[in-house]
Design brief:
The complex is a heterodimer of chains A (about 100) and B (about 90). By secondary structure, chain A is an all-alpha fold. Chain A is flat, with a radius of gyration of 21 Å. Chain A has a single domain, classed as Mitochondrial import inner membrane translocase subunit tim13 like domains (Helix Hairpins), CATH 1.10.287.810. Chain B is an all-alpha fold and about 90 residues long. Chain B is about 70% helix and about 0% strand. Chain B has two helices and no strands. Chains A and B meet through helix 1, helix 2 and helix 3 of A and helix 1 and helix 2 of B.
Chain lengths: ~100, ~90
């Protein structure tokens, strides 16, 4: 955080609106990055468990295929959970 | 080296600008909290509902309804526990 200006990619003469927008997009970017990082971490954990029951001396092609399939499936599961959760919150706003 | 950007000055931000930023940040924080909950729920419900070998890249309808039930029962459990704790409150 030594230089917010560099981080936001702004020059000294940026307008107020430009600085405001840059700040917001930096925050949004970091938030998206954090979300993606958690997703990748979870996928790795869950799919390693599923696809690599006995780690061998190298990753087999079957294990590789399993990882790809599992990754897609995990993302679908994430979306299904997200939808169910949104639906629940909407129908039951005080119930968290 | 003359035109190296320095820390931008935010001192000219009006109250409206600050308010805008504050509500933007609050919204982002709420989004982050929601996403963290979904990550946690997906982790839990994946373990419960995706029990077999991974053969397909899609969630089938049985798995899908298991995931839905899992989310809803988790929230029910949470509410039940909070209610129980509440009832115990006086005696704890």
């Amino acid at each position: 955080m030594d230089n917010v200006g560099n981080m936001l990619g702004l020059s000294n003469n940026a307008t107020k609106e430009e600085r405001k927008q840059a700040l917001m997009s930096t925050i949004a970017q970091q938030s998206n990055f954090e979300n993606a990082r958690t997703l990748i971490e979870k996928i790795n954990e869950k799919c390693f468990e599923k696809c690599i029951p006995k780690p061998g001396s190298s990753l087999s092609s079957g294990e590789s295929t399993c990882l790809t399939t599992c990754m897609q499936k995990y993302m679908q599961a994430w979306n299904a959970v997200s939808q169910a959760y949104i639906y629940r919150i909407k129908s039951d706003p005080r119930g968290n | 080296m003359d035109n190296q950007p320095s820390t931008p000055d935010f001192s000219d931000f009006s109250d409206k600008d600050k308010k805008d930023l504050q509500s933007f940040i609050e919204n982002e924080q709420q989004k982050a909290k929601f996403q963290a909950n979904v990550h946690n729920l997906t982790d839990l419900c994946w373990t419960k509902c995706i029990t077999g070998k991974i053969t397909s890249a899609t969630v089938d309808r049985y798995e899908n309804s298991c995931l839905e039930n899992c989310v809803n029962r988790f929230i029910d459990s949470q509410k039940t526990i909070v209610r129980q704790l509440d009832a115990m409150g006086g005696r704890a």
